[in-house]
Amino acid sequence: MSAPLRRQLHTADLLSSARAHQSQYVSDLAELVAIDSGSYDAEGVNKVADWVQTRLERLGFTVERIPHKHPGLDVGDTLLARKPGRLTPAEGGRRILLAAHMDTVFDTGTAAERPFRVVGSTAYGPGVSDDKGGLLAGLTALQILQEHEIHAYAELVFLATPDEEIGSPASRTVTEDAARDAHFALGLEGARENGDLVIARKGVADFRLTVTGRAAHAGIEPERGANAALCAAHLVVALQALNGHREEVTVNVGVVRAGNRANIVCPHAELRIEVRAATEAGIRWAHQAITDLARYPAVPGTSVSVEQLDLCPPMEDTPAARHLLEQATTTAAALGFRIGAAATGGVGDANLIAGQGAVVLDGLGPVGGADHTPDEWLDIGSVPQRVALLATLISSLGDANLDR
């Protein structure tokens, strides 16, 4: 039997198993959605973590439970689970990271106010798509691989974070450490509404510009002052004018603060700026442009300092990511459906993973939409094919010998 034919039969077997698990998937999803797990509800997130940990340990994973002490922030634990395969890296075994998050954007009590329900082939409920549907799809794919005794990989790593919806401030270092030695990473966020996977996510850099002027009596001797508010106003115009100068780079002045009394020439102002860019080069360009504008303030006697507050790296559209997408596209075709590739300005844990050099493909959860709203939905009919896609990708990516 030829290798392509063996792969086709293998894919068909995994799809058959995924279909057999569909009713259990829906039952499990109802159980997960019934748990309130907003980012600031540490107790609720940890209930989800308990559920996920039990499932992973049942599948033979060793689970590390990582509590977080982040200043001014109470979040749940991160789960980092590992399962060794039968291939060493020297034998062609690869390390594959699956990444999902357990938190939602919804307040405690939402699960009772708006409980899980199914209408036709569509499920509704808080977090049903973002990201409990994807989290469960990953666990179901791992269960299918276990049932088929597929262990041709160096290691599987399953990461479930508690704070993705608020930018992963507590779990970031854990995510980056887990990604550092991964060959491939599969992000379990939901697929786009049209079924596309996510090939790229913009990075985000936050800046604070502090404008220092000189106070003076606004009525008696305004000429002795240097108005920081006026300087800030010129900066806002100049910063916003950076938009359109470089493709896939946006600059937004989101916060402006200045002065505290109307009868004083304003001595101090502050701007908060967000930059989004598809590439690291784009973020560097914006940083330099902001620095150049700050170097030559429009109001004599004022000065401007620039501070970068945070950086979430872009998940770039690279040749390696395109090759991974091609494998996913071929697999999807064998499973009877088509997928495309989408780039998005939204960020997630996949950005942090890509920043460590892993090859990442995101959006591998089931098809869903209306995330962060009362109308959030998930297409139950998409579950078997998406779970089979995940399982097949893990199986094929785990063994480098299959590429030869």
TrEMBL record:
<feature type="domain" description="Peptidase M20 dimerisation">
    <location>
        <begin position="199"/>
        <end position="298"/>
    </location>
</feature>
<dbReference type="InterPro" id="IPR011650">
    <property type="entry name" value="Peptidase_M20_dimer"/>
</dbReference>
<dbReference type="InterPro" id="IPR050072">
    <property type="entry name" value="Peptidase_M20A"/>
</dbReference>
<dbReference type="Pfam" id="PF07687">
    <property type="entry name" value="M20_dimer"/>
</dbReference>
<dbReference type="InterPro" id="IPR002933">
    <property type="entry name" value="Peptidase_M20"/>
</dbReference>
<dbReference type="Pfam" id="PF01546">
    <property type="entry name" value="Peptidase_M20"/>
</dbReference>
<keyword id="KW-0479">Metal-binding</keyword>
<keyword id="KW-0862">Zinc</keyword>
<dbReference type="InterPro" id="IPR017150">
    <property type="entry name" value="Pept_M20_glutamate_carboxypep"/>
</dbReference>
<dbReference type="InterPro" id="IPR036264">
    <property type="entry name" value="Bact_exopeptidase_dim_dom"/>
</dbReference>
<protein>
    <submittedName>
        <fullName>M20 family metallopeptidase</fullName>
    </submittedName>
</protein>
<dbReference type="InterPro" id="IPR001261">
    <property type="entry name" value="ArgE/DapE_CS"/>
</dbReference>
<keyword id="KW-0378">Hydrolase</keyword>
